[in-house]
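Q: I have 189 residues here and want to know how they pack in 3D. Can you give me a structure?
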Amino acid sequence: MRSARPIKKSGWGSDEATDSSEPRFIAIGRIVRAHGLRGEVAVEVWTDFPERFDTIEVVYLGGNALEAEAWQVTATRWHRDRVLLTLQGCEDRTAAERLRGLLVQVPIEEAMPLSEDEYYAHELVGLDVVTVEGEDLGRISEVLFTNANDVYVVVGPRGQILLPAIADVIVRVDLDAGQVVVRLMEGLV
């Protein structure tokens, strides 16, 4: 699962977390390749707030939301739909290639505030899912990110159910109650 794109009732989503651990970081992108010969890395942007790359001074690189290493950002620039980062200590293409695939993260405390009806994925994983009729469908185990819409993976009495995160299906998210209320469309289950 990805990070720092807020999950809207239809939109991109964010972070990876497990039921047992709260994430310490939230991913705002992923290093996809080295760029050039001087150690720049090309980052696929995952955040709905790409402007944060213009002023970012430190990023945390790692493979998950629990552990990451701090890297000082010495320069940023945009190239097409990617941001190119120059990181202190990453001096050549070989060093940049070693960073390929790592998540570019910020501390969870630096997550951008979201508006009503927007949620980070780590807030949704573990929530109980019930229908408007009161049927228990299980618990959200992960959030999948597709080009069309996010998909909530629910595991419960009916097995695994994939619920599209669209307004026709997601009726209400109540973080305080730990519950998502859904309306099942024909053919979903």
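Q: Anything worth noting?
A: The chain has two helices and 14 strands. The chain has two domains: 7-118, 126-182.
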